[in-house]
Design a protein that fits this description.
single chain; five-stranded mixed β-sheet; 5 strands; alpha/beta; 45% helix; 13% strand
């Protein structure tokens, strides 16, 4: 120790005083902040990285930068779930010969209030029991999932059930609403187009082979599959349905911070709009 102090040109008494003095304020703050980071991370279901955690901590009264949060995460071995690069896939047959709606969504500005544009899509979830097919209706203004339905077939009844749920959850009149989907046979069916007409809703469809026209719905599927399932294969469809319900109704809609919404949840974003 004497040689080290000599090399550093410090006294031995000064070295020992330094090692025994009270820890610095920032170190103590880090200990408190690290606990807050861990709690916020776990409450996010291990989905938040530094941008969302920064907003979450600020709401809790802790103003700090992303680099500091990232350091505290690394020290605790916390790593957010990462979804794969967003590559929309068109996986349904659009060669059904039925009349399709024009791509009205492409001509519209971004929505400025709820019930101006809804987007919808179908996907499938693997289970040990077989595929579970899932349909959802999202309000493009708030990214809120208004209605969803899951079943073991991709029949038109599935998308109608999701639409019915969205109508029940929506606020205000739907006349003039633009409803956008791909050109799948379910959305071009007589039953579905009739349901939209009865609601006085304008139907819009993606251009054939242009999956980016419905990118918001496709991106939601990528997020759900990562954050809800994280490579887990549920043993039965009912388990998958329970997981989807929990993710959408208790996390994504009311809690999950969306970067496109200024890091508010869909419900908080809508509430702020209605309050204003």
């Amino acid at each position: 120790m004497k040689e080290i102090c000599t090399a550093l040109e410090i006294s031995r008494s000064g070295f020992y005083d330094h090692t025994h003095k009270h820890r610095r304020t920032r170190r103590l703050q880090d200990e408190v902040l690290a606990q807050e980071v861990r709690e916020a991370f776990l409450e996010s279901r291990a989905t938040y990285g530094t941008p969302r955690l920064r907003h979450e901590l600020r709401e809790r009264g802790h103003v700090c930068g992303r680099r500091r949060i990232g350091r505290l995460m690394r020290q605790q071995g916390l790593h957010a779930l990462r979804k794969g690069r967003f590559i929309p896939r068109h996986h349904r047959d659009s060669s059904h010969g039925r009349e399709v709606a024009p791509p009205r969504l492409l001509e519209m500005p971004a929505p400025t209030e709820p019930n101006q544009v809804w987007v919808t899509d179908l996907t499938y979830i693997p289970t040990a029991e077989g595929w579970l097919f899932l349909a959802a209706e999202l309000d493009l203004f708030s990214r809120r999932v208004l209605g969803w339905a899951a079943g073991d077939t991709m029949e038109t009844g599935l998308v109608l059930e999701a639409l019915d749920g969205a109508v029940a959850q929506s606020r205000g009149r739907l006349a003039g609403l633009v409803h956008h989907s791909d050109q799948g046979s379910q959305y071009a069916s007589h039953d579905f187009t009739t349901a939209l007409a009865e609601l006085d809703v304008d139907q819009s469809m993606s251009r054939r082979g242009n999956c980016y026209d419905n990118a918001t719905a496709e991106s939601f599927w990528a997020t759900l599959k990562t954050e809800c399932f994280n490579n887990i294969i549920p043993p039965i469809r009912d388990d998958a349905k329970t997981m989807i319900f929990d993710y959408i109704e208790t996390f994504d809609n009311p809690v999950r911070r969306h970067s496109a919404l200024g890091f508010l949840s869909p419900v908080a974003f809508e509430n702020r709009f209605h309050h204003n």
